């Protein structure tokens, strides 16, 4: 076993695909100290700067003071603190949904939702660039899987046409693609799901807090909330905390409570996290200025996720190392996170950055890019 694993690690090393953990000693939403060096943080998902917000910290602290450091059991045993009830009520109001359920993380939510919804006799249609947690949920479900080319509705329709009309069908997509930063064609997906009698699930991990009048997500922004069957999202990105949610009709949520294994067989979230989640939903709905500032930073880019696709692993790692030397936290994203040959630096913007900081960073990114030969 050891020999085999060591040779696998060696193989990753040779492909410049071996990952190493970095040590973060402080982070304030804008600046991060990583491996002892202070850098402008262009790599986090803290899109609205809420992770270090004093109000979230205080709410988390108060919840921990009242209910303890740990939840002591799963939700169906004795871990379902009233904090959950409060947060889920707030979630329903925010998303104008009939029912809501909090999961421990986005990863486990996708696993649990998808594997509960579909099984061996069903068919799932999944965008080529969907997040790994969706892919793993599909694998776990054992359903027949079709991947449609990224955002290619014609391809999706041709696959839907071939599928047996008698089988249950699920279409699943990220709303904003995590590594490319482009948006799913949600209106077209709604048309197709109706035409072929499928249900549609949208993962709002990267759009919750950012799109929609009160940060409800891209589905609301496009006024599709009554036509998307399942909206899933996370509290771990723009909402600055941890955990995930799913909203939908009551029968769906009742079913997840009874059958989602990643919901049932795990300890409930720590009270501190639930306190922070509740506070972050309150802030995100009313502090429009955060969304407006982020929108201003986005400028002509598609969204707040801005990748520079380089291709080779080596050059991508080189670029990220050079950027870090110049004081910019930018991370090399390589396979299997992205397809072979599309390694990239994934920049992410945050409302907590200033224009001056971004100009400063842009100058350095252009300089390093030119030196390495990836920007002309
Ligand atoms: N879905 C998408 C689209 C994601 O990008 C991520 C996280 N990168 C997740 C789900 C998982 O969320 P979490 O980090 O809360 O587990």
From TrEMBL:
What processes does the entry annotate via GO biological process terms?
Answer: biotin biosynthetic process
The pathway it acts in is:
Cofactor biosynthesis; biotin biosynthesis
Instruction: Kindly state which reaction or reactions the protein catalyses.
Output: 6-carboxyhexanoyl-[ACP] + L-alanine + H(+) = (8S)-8-amino-7-oxononanoate + holo-[ACP] + CO2
Keywords, A to Z? Acyltransferase, Biotin biosynthesis, Pyridoxal phosphate, Transferase
Q: Where is the Aminotransferase class I/classII large domain?
A: 37-365
Matching Pfam families? Aminotran_1_2
- Extract the InterPro entries matched here: Aminotrans_II_pyridoxalP_BS, Aminotransferase_I/II_large, AON_synthase_class-II, AONS_Archaea/Proteobacteria, PyrdxlP-dep_Trfase, PyrdxlP-dep_Trfase_major, PyrdxlP-dep_Trfase_small
Q: What is its EC number?
A: 2.3.1.47
Which cofactors does it use? pyridoxal 5'-phosphate
Write down which residues bear the modification named N6-(pyridoxal phosphate)lysine: 237
What quaternary structure, including any partners, is listed in this protein's UniProt entry? Homodimer.
Q: Which function does this protein serve?
A: Catalyzes the decarboxylative condensation of pimeloyl-[acyl-carrier protein] and L-alanine to produce 8-amino-7-oxononanoate (AON), [acyl-carrier protein], and carbon dioxide.
Stated name of the protein: 8-amino-7-ketopelargonate synthase
